[in-house]
Amino acid sequence: MELIRRYEVVARERLDQGVYDYYAGGAGDEQTLAENDRAWRRWWLRPRTMVDVGAVDPSVTVLGRRLAAPVIVAPMAAQRLLHPDGELGTARAAAAAGLAYTLSTRATTDVAEVCAAAGGGVWFQLYVQIDRDATEAAVRHAVSSGVEALVLTVDLPVAGRRERERANPEIALPEGVTLATHTGRPAESTIKPLGGWDPGLTWDDVAWLRDVGDGTPVLVKGVLTAEDAEAAMAAGAAGVIVSNHGARQLDGVVPTAIALDEVATAVEGRVPVLVDGGVRDGGDVVRALALGADAVLIGRPVAWALAAQGEGGVAELLAQFAEDVERALALCGCPDVAAVTRGHVQRAAW
Ligand SMILES: Cc1cc2nc3c(=O)[nH]c(=O)nc-3n(C[C@H](O)[C@H](O)[C@H](O)COP(=O)(O)O)c2cc1C
Ligand SMILES: CC(C)CC(=O)C(=O)O
Q: In this protein, which residues make up the domain named FMN hydroxy acid dehydrogenase (predicted)?
């Protein structure tokens, strides 16, 4: 937490108020935003001692790819708003750390360039548009660029009510920077919360996407209930991401540290379960693993590191984060990720 706070302080100094607010903000009164962080800490860790932790291996395999730690960079729009290194910087830093990187549909760098820079381990987050032809073209372009998974975001049928964005509803991108044309629309020089996404998306569309993606695994991002986890698996999802979109969509939805328990119990190991929202240190990662996650995604901490120090900042953050996961595993008596069990957490009474 401390490391991340330092990056956030620098990021806040460097960024325009509107840009900082866009990244930091949540929906409504930001009740869920605050609880996303706190809810992890309401699970106390139950460490075991006298286990040989002389060599701790924090690596995992997700969708066939070995990751140095169970950590993936979450999709976040418009990263060249934060630093000229933008998506290329974050993707390169993730690759150097042996982690996967998820590129947003609303990126400021084309997916082909990002895949080339990372050399593997890139996932493509998809917002399905009303214009299905444009979406199909984007998916084909992403797949032919070499993305290893399609992350279908299902929690943004309409824009959340984000009070902090009201002051700056349309953020101008820096001179010479435009949004990548993953939407098939002409290059745009501002970022808006919503534009042309299909609010009519249903579970039947997972089969369509699998088809368009030519078998590339489809992960459903934005699952908060056992019911939706079942529906996602029935629809052919290769995995689910427990997420409330960083508390940016509907204030009052369940924090992900609570939803994860229900979702992982329902999934019973049939597909990978990932989680994001408020994961801030190695202890949180162990909590997530204990509750049944295969890996976590982290969002804002990466944004702050990028804004503060560009690619080097993200590299440092991810290295320290992975090291902290290793330390937390050792201190819980777990020589590897497989050793983490439900018995490594207990719910706090408050
Ligand atoms: C500024 C910002 C932009 C985001 N853009 C996207 C996006 O384009 N697509 C998406 O699926 N999620 C997006 N998210 C949500 C993140 O992928 C992720 O779910 C969330 O930020 C994780 O929580 P954390 O920031 O607390 O780690 C965005 C989040 C932020 C903060
Ligand atoms: C362009 C936006 C829809 C990106 C996003 O998902 C977000 O701001 O949370």
A: 1-350
What six digits make up the tokens of 197? 């996404």
User: Closest Cα to atom 4, ligand 2: which residue?
Assistant: 77
Nearest CA to ligand 2 atom 3: 193
Residues with CB under 6 A from ligand 1: 22-23, 36, 74-77, 104, 106, 125, 153, 221, 243, 245-246, 248, 276-279, 298-300
Q: What is the complex's ipTM, to 2 decimals? A: 0.99
Residue 106 alpha carbon to ligand 2 centre in Å: 7
The tens digit of pLDDT for each residue in 45-95 reads: 999 999 999 999 999 999 999 999 999 999 999 999 999 999 999 999 999
Listed in order, strand segments (DSSP E) in 228-292 are 239-242, 273-276
Structure token digits, residue 263: 């979702």
pTM recorded for the entire structure: 0.97
Q: Tokens 């998809």 correspond to what residue?
A: 126
Does residue 245 carry a catalytic annotation?
A: yes
Whether residue 323 contacts residue 26, with contact meaning beta carbons closer than 8 Å, is answered with: no
Least distant ligand from the CA of 193: 2
Which tokens hold the place of 224?
Answer: 């908060």
Residue 27 Cβ inside 6 Å of ligand 2? The answer reads no
**Region at 191 (left for phi over 0; alpha for psi -120 to 50; beta for the rest):** beta
Beta strands in 27-112, from DSSP E residues, in sequence order = 43-45, 60-62, 65-67, 71-73, 100-103
Angle at the Cα of 73 from the Cα atoms of 219 and 199, rounded to 5 degrees = 45
**Which residues, in sequence order, are CB contacts of 157 under 8 Å at separation 6+?**
197, 198, 199, 201
Span between the terminal Cα atoms of the chain, in Å: 21
